[in-house]
Amino acid sequence: MRIANLRVLFVDHSKVFRSVWERMVLHAGHEPLIATDGLSGLEILQNQAIDFICVSLSLPDIDGIRFTRQVRTLPRSREIPIVLLTSAQDNATRKRAFEAGVTDICPKTGIEDLFYRASRMAVHDNQVLSGRVLYVEDSKTVTKVMTRLLEGMGLEVDHYVSAAEAFNHFDVQRHDLVISDILVEGDMSGIALVGELRKQHPDKIRTPILAMSGMDDAIRRVELFRLGINDFITKPVIFEEAASRIRNLIVQKQLFDQVQQQRIQLYEMAMTDPLTGLYNRNSLAEFASKISSAANRHDMDLSVIVIDLDHFKEVNDSHGHLVGDQVLASVGASLLSACRQEDFAVRFGGEEMLLILPHCSLNDAADRAEQLRERIARLKPAGIPISASLGVAAKPPGRAIELQQLIRIADQAVYEAKASGRNQVVVHDTGPKADTDKRCSSAA
Ligand SMILES: Nc1nc2c(ncn2[C@@H]2O[C@H](COP(=O)(O)OP(=O)(O)OP(=O)(O)O)[C@@H](O)[C@H]2O)c(=O)[nH]1
């Protein structure tokens, strides 16, 4: 969340402290207004719009508490945070200060912390957010007030009178906040809505829920929090309170989304080979056992194709490493475009790549390998004719086999394809007639 430029009034009689404060406020990109005593501070307030006030307890004329009391009598001054600067620990003074309308009390020495707090507290409710709210309310009057508040905050509102209708239109990707009245008309109550939303999407932070009710019943509130709401507002709604609660929930949710997004990006970076765009070898360890166990448990088809470029060292030697990289990237893109949704394409080693094909029989994998061989031979990346040797292996029906073992068998088939002259496909059948059933296809 960006903190907007603030106009900060600082009232203190110490020259040194005033100049330190002024520099800090300027440094943070805000506007300092300085007063040496309480009365000149009040004069500034009468003539200028101020977002935040810091006032010392002891001033040459009126003290900080009297100053605060007078500020609070000025029109529209209720929302301005006032921090009283004092190291006084006695409870009587502190109590008097809060009764006068002070927002917080800080020692003068904690200026850095104070300034951070100043920025946080003066975040104005009129700072525009962006986001979408699913709003459930059956009272026309409350709906009008709340919609005006939400739209004024920059939020888009999907309003429903019934909880069931709202539930049907809830979209975890689109909605940044759910606000629901607890007693709404129709078969589904607001409480049931909270329960259903949390049942379907248990991650509480993902879409926060703010419950509203005219019944300020502590036991009901506890039940709602247990059910999964993130916050609660009692009706009639106090505008500033509602705006601050809504703002907190939305900002927190959007920050969480950002962190999640970054986590996914980091994960993808860690799992992807940057040159070819294929999964890298590390990622294989992540999903190999899941793929094997799913295939073995349900006895489904599972095939692998190992693809090894022929004489790739010569490409590097004759055209340079960068052109070699270009060739690898082009082959990687070609493999990816040949993949179905359920396939995994992995860069296995330098110029060795691997396709894992769930729900694909040995015969189909052999056909796809031959198509790939032809495709690679036609590719001519950077104008260079290339070819590949391919090995195919598949899980025999009715028999359990680990993916790593299939890869070893397909690797062996590649070795044989190389030995037989390269640019060809060797298929290893691991079925009952394994030793006798080895098929080859080639360009020749
Ligand atoms: N440009 C480039 N070359 C790489 C990369 N990774 C591995 N290589 C090269 O790939 C070549 C592989 O050579 P070899 O293992 O001898 O295989 P080959 O020349 O393809 O010969 P055969 O496999 O027997 O047909 C080596 O020269 C490696 O330096 C890479 O990321 N970029």
From TrEMBL:
Q: Which domain of life is it from?
A: Bacteria
Q: Which Gene3D superfamilies would you find in this protein's record?
A: 3.30.70.270, 3.40.50.2300
Domain named Response regulatory: residues: 7-123, 132-250
Keyword Phosphoprotein assigned to the entry: answer is yes
The UniProt record lists the EC number as 2.7.7.65
Task: Give the cofactors, semicolon-separated.
Answer: Mg(2+)
Q: Where on the chain is 4-aspartylphosphate found, per UniProt?
A: 181
Report the catalytic activity: 2 GTP = 3',3'-c-di-GMP + 2 diphosphate
- Which Pfam families does this one have? GGDEF, Response_reg
**Cellular component, GO, one term:** plasma membrane
Classification via SMART domains: GGDEF (SM00267), REC (SM00448)
| Domain named GGDEF: residues | 300-430
Provide any one GO MF term from the record: diguanylate cyclase activity
GO BP annotations, alphabetical order: cell adhesion involved in single-species biofilm formation; negative regulation of bacterial-type flagellum-dependent cell motility; phosphorelay signal transduction system
Arranged from A to Z, the UniProt key words for this protein are: Phosphoprotein
Q: Which CDD domains match?
A: GGDEF, REC_hyHK_CKI1_RcsC-like
PANTHER family in the record, alphabetically?
DIGUANYLATE CYCLASE DGCM-RELATED, REGULATORY COMPONENTS OF SENSORY TRANSDUCTION SYSTEM
The protein here is known as diguanylate cyclase
Originating species = Wenzhouxiangella marina
